[in-house]
From TrEMBL:
Name of the protein in its database record: 2-C-methyl-D-erythritol 2,4-cyclodiphosphate synthase
Species of the source: Meiothermus hypogaeus NBRC 106114
Quaternary structure and partners: Homotrimer.
GO molecular function: 2-C-methyl-D-erythritol 2,4-cyclodiphosphate synthase activity; metal ion binding
Domain 2-C-methyl-D-erythritol 2,4-cyclodiphosphate synthase: 12-159
Leader sequence segment: none
Entry's family note: Belongs to the IspF family.
Domain of life: Bacteria
HAMAP family (alphabetical): IspF (MF_00107)
Length: 170
């Protein structure tokens, strides 16, 4: 007997983002302001975690990337808080009948050391994505001096169908 096919499936997404660092810019990671003498040079607030996470969520549905929705050549997005980008993208995920089930992010930054900010970033990401903190994995790495003026993040998300929306997808 053949297995019954289901339209509900688990999805994964992958995204990454990077920015040069410069004096006079703030450093935002996961929606948290991190004390630093340098920050991301970007059209928005340059939060590489939220950018990579948003691209990962979009990639799970083949919906392009955040530049498709918030182009960096459009002055209306200048200085945009990346939290807003994530909120828009999360609504697209929900509109497709899914929600985040788990996320992981690897941030590469030589300085400042991010260990002291881990709990705040993890808590904020969990809050923004509606996840328990134990479902938010963060890894911090340095470039070993290869990219001292650079911040980068790679993110993966696991998406699960919203249980009360299962009937809507059939």
């Amino acid at each position: 007997m053949a297995e019954k096919s289901t339209t509900a499936q688990l999805l994964i997404g992958y995204g990454e983002d990077s920015h040069r660092l410069g004096q006079g810019h703030e450093l935002w990671l996961g929606g948290v302001h991190v004390e630093s003498d340098r920050g991301a040079i970007a059209h928005s607030d340059g939060d590489v975690i939220l950018h990579a996470l948003s691209d990962a969520l979009l990639s799970a549905f083949a919906l392009g990337d955040i530049g498709s929705y918030f182009p960096d050549n459009d002055p209306k997005w200048k200085g945009l808080e990346s939290r807003v980008i994530l909120e828009v993208v999360l609504q697209k995920v929900r509109d497709n009948g899914y929600r985040p089930g788990q996320l992981v992010a690897v941030v590469m930054l030589d300085r400042p050391k991010l260990g002291p900010s881990r709990a705040a970033i993890q808590q904020n990401l969990a809050l923004l994505c509606g996840l328990p903190e134990k479902r938010v994995g963060l890894t911090f790495k340095t470039s070993e001096g290869l990219a001292p003026d650079h911040v980068q993040c790679r993110a993966m998300v696991y998406l699960e169908p919203i249980p009360d929306r299962q009937g809507d997808k059939g």
